[in-house]
């Protein structure tokens, strides 16, 4: 699953404008792998249209084999796109990104 992260480890509030995204692999309720990627979606969003930006995010998600997204919230168009490509969506999370992923992993 993927989560937008700040430098301090907190969830970045704006998924589609995140400078960095972590991809976590979970198994048996625990994080077994955590990699952070400098996606620079904050810059990319200002340089293109919304539709193209969403397509670039979808491509990145598929290239990184993401199966779910953890976020504070999502815009309607972003959420629709993520659901359309088959992702599980976990909304309403704040605080430390790793803690949110662990919480979801334990419930899964």
Q: What does it look like?
A:
With 108 residues, this protein is of the alpha/beta class. It is 37% helix and 24% strand. The chain has one domain: 2-Layer Sandwich (Nucleotidyltransferase, domain 5), CATH 3.30.420.130. A 5-stranded mixed beta sheet has the order 3-2-1-4-5, sandwiched between helices. Strand 4, helix 3 and strand 5 form a beta-alpha-beta unit. The longest helix is centred in the middle third of the chain and has 14 residues. It is globular, with a radius of gyration of 13 Å. InterPro entries: Di-Nase_FeMo-co_biosynth, DiNase_FeMo-co_biosyn_sf. This is Dinitrogenase iron-molybdenum cofactor biosynthesis domain-containing protein. It comes from Sulfoacidibacillus thermotolerans (Acidibacillus sulfuroxidans).
What oligomeric assembly is this protein in? single chain
Name of the top-level CATH class: Alpha Beta
Strand content: 15-25%
Radius of gyration: 13 Å
Briefly note the structural class of the backbone: alpha/beta
Tally of extended strands? 5
Distance between the termini: 12 Å
How many domains would you count in the coordinates? 1
Strand order of the largest sheet: 3-2-1-4-5
Count of individual helical segments: 4
Tell me the CATH topology. Nucleotidyltransferase, domain 5
> What is the string of SSEs from the N terminus onward?
EEEHHEHEH
Low-confidence stretches: none
């Amino acid at each position: 699953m993927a989560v937008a992260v700040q430098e301090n480890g907190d969830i970045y509030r704006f998924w589609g404008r995140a400078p960095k995204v972590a991809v976590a692999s979970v198994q048996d309720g625990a994080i077994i792998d955590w990699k952070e990627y400098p996606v620079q979606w904050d810059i990319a969003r200002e340089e293109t249209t919304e539709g193209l930006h969403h397509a670039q995010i979808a491509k990145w998600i598929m290239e990184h084999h993401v199966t779910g997204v953890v976020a504070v919230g999502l815009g309607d168009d972003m959420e629709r796109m993520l659901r359309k490509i088959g992702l599980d969506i976990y909304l309403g999370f704040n605080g430390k990104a790793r803690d949110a992923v662990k919480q979801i992993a334990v419930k899964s």
